[in-house]
Write a structure and sequence with these properties.
flat; mainly alpha; 69 residues
């Protein structure tokens, strides 16, 4: 298992906290696609999403929160 440092994640996100949130949401998106269940050597979705974020393959946009009055 690969260990991702906060610096690696922060390089492709505004900060390490936003990077983890982006990777978690991307892992949820990956979970919606069908996978080959027969392969036990497949990487976990969170690992795949962190790898793609560290490579800079994930493009995301931060949407400002709407105020409710």
């Amino acid at each position: 298992m690969r260990v991702f440092t906060p610096g690696e994640i922060a390089n492709h996100a505004a900060n390490k906290y936003l990077g983890v949130l982006v990777a978690a949401k991307y892992a949820r998106v990956l979970n919606e696609f069908p996978r080959d269940r027969s392969s036990s050597r497949e990487k976990k979705l969170t690992t795949r999403s962190l790898e793609e974020l560290a490579k800079g393959d994930i493009v995301y946009h931060v949407v400002p929160r709407r105020r409710t009055d």
